[in-house]
Amino acid sequence: MTTLDTTPEEATAESHGEYHQDMSFQPKANRIGLWLFIVSETFLFGAFLSARWFSTGTLKPEELNQALALLLTIVLLVSSISAYLAETSIKYDHRRNFVLFIVFTIVMGLIFMGGVTIEIKEALHAYPPETPYGTSYFMLIGLHAFHVITGLLALTMVLILGLKGHYGSKQYWGVEGVVKYWHFVDLAWVIIYPTLYLF
Amino acid sequence: MKYLVRAFVLGIVGYAVGVGLTMAIRGGGPTDEVAVVIGYIFALMGWLGGIGGIEAFGRQWVGKSVEVSTARGWRRYFQFSVDHKVIGIQYGVTLLSVLLIGGIAAMIMRVELASPGVGIVDLDDFNKIVSMHGILMVAVAVAGIIGAFGNYIIPIQIGAQDMAFPRLNAIGFWLVPPVAIALLMSPLLGAFNAGWTSYAPLSVTNESGQILFNMAIVTFGMSSILGGINIITTVITMRAPGMTWGRLPIFTWAGLATSVLAFAVTQFFAAAVILITMDRVAGTSFFQPDVGSALLYEHIFWFYSHPAVYIMVLPGFGVILEIVTTFSRKPLFAYKAVVASLFAIVGLSVVVWAHHMFTSGMANFLHGPFMIITEAISIPTGVIFLGILGTLWQGRLWFRTPLVIAFGWLFNFTIGGITGIFLADVATDIHLHDTYFVVAHFHYTIVGGSIFALIAAVFYWFPKITGRMYNEKAGSIFGVWLTVFFNLTFIPLFWAGMNGMNRRIGDYPDAFEGANKFASVSALILGASFLLFVGNLLYSALWGPKVGPNPWNARTLEWLIPSPPPEHNFTSQPVVIGSPYAYGVKGSVHAYFPDANEGDDPGDGSAQNQETVLA
Fold it and tell me: Which long-range CB contacts under 8 A does B5-12 form with residues at least 24 apart?
């Protein structure tokens, strides 16, 4: 094992001999890889969304808590804006703003998760998983909540590393990647929300 | 080995923790399906961390620098190595082992089917063996070529030192052993008897082994998706100077097309088995007959599993095209049309899935469109065949083992393709559905199209990977043996199927005994041929004669570097200046090394290989 200060992608090229490939492709490769991952995730959500449309169409129960769902949608969309502002801040080395916006985003995400917990509690009584609507509801909410949780963990990681001073205007790929993922999680909700609540 | 031991320990600890937590929170026994699911997830995380994920990823997450293995020699094959060549060999050896295990299952099935009535296994066990054979072989066909040779060859063919995401590549491979372990452990929980297709509602109500099957599929799916993303990114961003899209070797094109499919549809199989898992452990009712719909499962499942057959054969096309052009010493015929056809297949393959469901009770108006689009796939496939035949036409054929097997491939896949038309056609499919005609057809396409290509690729790149030549005589005999007895095994099954013999059942009417006896005897001889294959590879890898960089006098970049390739593939930057397939064109050069030192081997093999070079 060797300890490396650079990423292993660079290190494998450096550790060996006189010639190493030009590594200028790496930022581009990171972006392409992330976008492919997001497309791939979109198809996964697509599979579950089409399961909902196939088996229950637009069927929905009376007891849905519309006010709470709308509130949560707003919370999540606002968190997307703050995530974007955090990314922009670190791009211009505004570290204080970066930390503030990331914290704000995490708080919004936690509020969202709290709201989802309330929703799930209500749903367990009103339309449990055995019912046709409940089946799709719990699947989609569960899948999305899983992504919110992983997104929150990633944001926390970015926050801690940011506080340690790992990011700056020259090196913010970690922030960019996590923020893009967070946008994706919000976008998924923008599709799931009308599918479950509106139509 | 330290890391492998740690992976096993953390995996087992993770499983125990997961099961323990579940039992503590909700009660119940250790073999409850919820406990198994949670245990598996924890075990998987423990395994990945233990094998090297802690050093390669975990340290980065807490802001420390990452560590990667720099081991040399045989040890690196048991480690979290980020070298794409090591990972390719890891994939190849693992999947060839899985192929042999799946083959043993096939032999048991053929012995049982040698005579009507219940023989060596009872009917439920027969279903479990069929399911195990199915999923193991599907795994080999899906990942065999693209996992082993896609990882090993594609970065070299485009002139790169490694993949774009070496650590992700390693994770992709280390996700595979848990798949094999979960599948092979499933008999402890009663195995799974719903076939590799796992149709609901049987897969919702059968024994708990099904849950391990589901977990294995999700894990394997993650591996496929990560691998696909990695290959696409690598080919887009890491090509050497001058390696334009029009000069990309055809195997790389095929690998790219495969990866596009793999990263876009694999989720659907995962989604289908996740829905089954939810029905089993979370009380949802996607596939319960009264509330949900079994048709939903078939739609989601086939949305992956039809494109999956192209994930299996597209890299096969790439291998065969590569071999045919090398061994007929002619430029690849209709290169651009072949590339376009590869991507036409990618596009068409995702809109034909419901031709598996003509007898399932879906809406009748869907039958016509799906029939026509399915049959339209034969157009790009035909163009690729034309490319192969046009390359062979008036070539100077050099009959070495890869070409022998490529001819077997050509014959088999032609039969597989033609019989496919009968199954795509609604009228004939309603008669042939779920008979041995289907079994014979897909063995002709998948074994004939993917496994034959995998074996041809093993022989073609064997000297490059090991630096030693396999035994040519044993290889050719194996190639002919394999082709002849493969055909003798499956031709009778077309007849049996047309006359109404049902698939997936360990018993059949007496009228089919003759055909089945014939097929069983042929299958056993076919199975025995693999002893020669494995023996040849093992012996030659250790004691075969050494070869130079370019025993086939081929022109793509992997043949311009020493055999086996050095750790980072190239000792100086390759520059591409021409087509890789301009065989026989005077003065044509594919690539050269402008910065190479005087003493370096120029790598064209001219010095070492006079005896094997053709004029």
Answer: B6/B50, B6/B51, B7/B46, B7/B47, B7/B48, B7/B49, B7/B50, B7/B51, B7/B174, B8/B47, B8/B50, B9/B50, B10/B46, B10/B47, B10/B49, B10/B50, B11/B43, B11/B44, B11/B46, B11/B47, B11/B50, B11/B178, B12/B43, B12/B46
Structure-token match 């581009």, residue found: A28
**Over residues A152-164, mean pLDDT:** 94
* C-beta atoms of A54 and B296 within 8 A: yes
Query: Touching check for B162 and chain A: CB below 8 Å?
Result: yes
Interface of B with A in 196-225 (CB under 8 A): 225
Average pLDDT over residues A31-50: 94
Q: What is the pLDDT of residues A80-103, one digit of tens each?
A: 999 999 999 999 999 999 999 999
Asked if pLDDT for residue B77 goes beyond 80, the answer is yes
- Paired strand residues for A2: B68
Q: Domains plus CATH for chain B?
A: 1-64 (no CATH), 85-543 (1.20.210.10)
**Could you tell me which of B401, B491, B524 has the C-alpha nearest to residue B452?**
B401
Residue B68 near chain A (CB below 8 Å): yes
Query: Using one digit for the tens of pLDDT, what is the confidence trace for B514-524?
Result: 999 999 999 99
DSSP string covering B335-362, please? Answer: HHHHHHHHHHHHHHHTT-GGGG-TTTT-
What homologous superfamily is domain A30-56+65-198 in, according to CATH?
A: Cytochrome c oxidase, subunit III, four-helix bundle (1.20.120.80)
d(CA B233, CA A145): 29
Residues 517-556 of B with CB under 8 A from A: none
Residues of A in contact with B60 (CB under 8 A): 7
**CB distance B31 to B208 below 8 Å:** yes
Domain boundaries, chain A: 30-56+65-198
Q: For residue A19, what pLDDT is reported?
A: 64
Question: What does the pLDDT average to over B547-553?
Answer: 92
Over its C-alpha atoms, chain A yields an Rg (Å, rounded) of: 20
